[in-house]
Amino acid sequence: MAQAKAKNANRSLVMVWLVMFTFFVISFLTNIIGPILPDAEKELGLTLTMAGILPFAFFIAYGIMSIPAGYLVEKYREKKVMIAAFVLAAIANFLFVLFPTFYTFLPSLFLVGCGMAMLQVVINPLLRTAGGEEHYSFNSVLAQLIFGLASFVSPVAFSYLVVHLQKADISNPVLAFLNRVVPAGLPWVSIYWVSTLISVLMVIALCFLKFPVVKAKEDEKIEGKSVLLSLLSNKTVIFFFFGIFAYVGTEQGFSNWISKFLETYHGYDPDTVGAQTLSYFWLMMTVGGLLGLALLKLFDVKKVFGGSLLLTFVALSFALFGSGKVALIAFPACGFMLSVMYPSIFSLGLNSLPSHHGTFAGILCAAIMGGAVVPLIIGALGDALGLKTAMSVLYITLLYMFSIAVFAKPLVQNETIFSTAKE
To answer: Which of 68, 113, 324, 341 is the most exposed place for a label (fewest CB within 10 A)?
Structure first.
């Protein structure tokens, strides 16, 4: 009875929706980098390599902060870490809007990335506690849908701000304010004013909220140095680390260069058509996630994963080598196919190791740094060989993930309708 009361005391619908909105904010701040790259490149006078360093600065923070963030949560608890993360993001964004140069943009993106890595570590256990373990699966799926929605919204918001701030007559008071504070010729910087405001509002909200007591399960804890070093030398861990590395690199390789590719090879405006196509890329990823849930109840995860990769090879080929109109359809189609890949790699990885799942999960989260490396490689190759050739690097990352679909040997198979029926 006492345990039931303690559990109910930790339940909070307000906290659940706070976590959901945090997922939204993380996605919004993360995926705004892609649509701004063409403008940042032109208006800050960057080469493609320098433009590729921008997402590098953001995503390398995941590799550096993911595991330390776990220890910070154990020492300072969830509320303080979340507040610190949003304070960091607010300061970093405000630094850039005051001094919008390439050399302030890099540390700003790195600090925001550190904050987002800290939040990623906090919110899943918090969602399990606040929403109840019995609702965790449903809430996790809902959170991913909200994450996808924010990925769709951020390019739309960016496009709206850039287009309307370039108009001579601005009657909207918010746009009028932004028009006064944003430097002339840099309308895209306005999105970072929005990001600053969101971060500040999150800090204020968090200060007034009471957090539940989160007790991490054994498979959520990050263990000591000896276990960490042991796992880092484990071939299975390394195999799946580079699987997540390849996936996030692929996702961000698309996200960061779609708009620039469409401008370079087909003459589409990156602030309108490019941003819209990127929005559809994320929207189709969300839709694909819903279909993926159904497919994983019907088929083995390796088959669903492998099939989606083969289809992505085809869609990528149409996107890179087809006409402009074909590319506008093929790039979002790639997003649709990518939707099942991250959870597939993550679940296959955890199910391939008998123990130390919390530490392993922390290592896999650190592999998100793939989003730093692959876009940078594409940018560097783009300067030397052209962006079309450079984006062909994505065939290599897709091929590595396909090796997981072929060679992974999970200790636990995903349950399907057919496997349940056999029992």
So the answer is: 324
